[in-house]
Amino acid sequence: MQPRRLLITPLLLLYCLALAPAQISPGEQAYERYRAWFTQFPPNQQAAVTPEQYRAHLQSQGLSASAIDEQIRLIREQGPRAEAQRWNRILTSQKPSFNTNPNAFLVDMAKGRKPGTALDVGMGQGRNALWLAQQGWQVTGFDPAAAAVALAQKNAAALGVALKTEVTTREAFDFGDSRWDLILISYAGGREVPAQIERALRPGGILIIEGFHRDATRGRSIGGSVVFDTGEIPKLFPDLRVVRYEEPVSKADFGQEMVRLVRYCAQRPE
Ligand SMILES: C[S@@+](CC[C@H](N)C(=O)[O-])C[C@H]1O[C@@H](n2cnc3c(N)ncnc32)[C@H](O)[C@@H]1O
């Protein structure tokens, strides 16, 4: 498995700098470099890439054997924490680099629906969960980034709305059966646990996903879990009936550039 060649454009450098503040630990720095490398692999292969495969790349960069061992050790020991820390930094920044308003596709798809139970997968700082709660939905959200989830709870208290939250991952969360009238995955994956998500929707419930189209990765380092190929998402959920599917060029909520996105809304048949 070979990574695509990535053109280092001024745009890419700006993008990486914006997402990688200077004040981060050696483990987080090692992880950021590793992340910039593995995001060059095709989106659906990135989950299978291991730190050990990174060794040959570091050797080609001229690092000594001991420096390479140290990098691999840091990534192995601190990788998951560093990923959560990266999102804590981005999502709780005083100067947010993302759209802090609710996702426009969610607003469009939820409009006119009778509020029920909603689940926000990878909720971040809760911009979408809070909007749903304000519309009368009973919202649960989860995310491994603890500081982002704490900020969501703080904002819920300030707004006077209830939010159930968990600090956990989609791999560990118990989605349940026929439990949710709406499940949202906004820039937070979608191909990891599709059968659990289909089962977790109530009959008549809807799944809403927004992420990047693979075209958006040209010249940008974007984690593969939020990147999809043409027509990929509807095939992940064969038991759902598509309500709307589009791959428009539009302003992304994260990165805030005009790029190709994917927007998917589908319903579990009654
Ligand atoms: C680009 S942010 C999107 C946040 C939010 N959904 C929104 O639209 O504002 C991606 C989020 O996915 C979360 N995430 C990363 N790995 C995850 C996992 N394994 N399970 C659930 N969420 C995860 C990150 O912590 C981060 O909050």
- The portion of residues forming beta strands comes to 15-25%
Give the topology string: H per helix, E per strand. Answer: HHHHHEHEHEEHEEHEEE
Main sheet? Answer: 9 strands, mixed
Assign the structural class, choosing from mainly alpha, mainly beta, alpha/beta, alpha+beta, or little secondary structure. Answer: alpha/beta
Q: What would you call the shape?
A: globular
The helix content is: 25-40%
- How far do the termini sit from each other? 42 Å
- The low-pLDDT segments are 1-21
Overall mean pLDDT stands at 91
Q: Would you report the number of β strands?
A: 9
CATH topology of the largest domain: Rossmann fold
Task: Spell out the blueprint of helices and strands.
Elements: H1 10-19, H2 26-38, H3 54-60, H4 65-91, H5 104-110, E1 117-121, H6 127-134, E2 138-142, H7 146-159, E3 163-166, E4 180-186, H8 194-200, E5 201-213, E6 227-228, H9 232-236, E7 241-246, E8 249-251, E9 258-267
Parallel strand pairs: 1-2, 1-4, 2-3, 4-5, 5-6
Antiparallel strand pairs: 5-9, 7-9, 8-9
Helix pairs in contact: 2-4, 3-4, 6-7
List the main descriptive attributes of the protein structure presented here.
270 residues; alpha/beta; Rossmann fold; 2 domains; nine-stranded mixed β-sheet; 9 helices; 9 strands; 36% helix; disordered N terminus; binds S-adenosylmethionine
Summarize the structure.
With 270 residues, the chain is an alpha/beta fold.
Commentary on this structure:
The chain has 270 residues and is an alpha/beta fold. It has two domains: 10-91, no CATH class; 104-267, Rossmann fold. The chain has helices spanning 10-19, 26-38, 54-60, 65-91, 104-110, 127-134, 146-159, 194-200, 232-236; strands spanning 117-121, 138-142, 163-166, 180-186, 201-213, 227-228, 241-246, 249-251, 258-267. Strand 8 (249-251) and strand 9 form a beta hairpin. The termini are far apart. Mean pLDDT is 91; it is low at 1-21. Bound molecules: S-adenosylmethionine. S-adenosylmethionine binds next to helix 4 and helix 6. The site of S-adenosylmethionine has 21 residues, from helix 4 and helix 6.
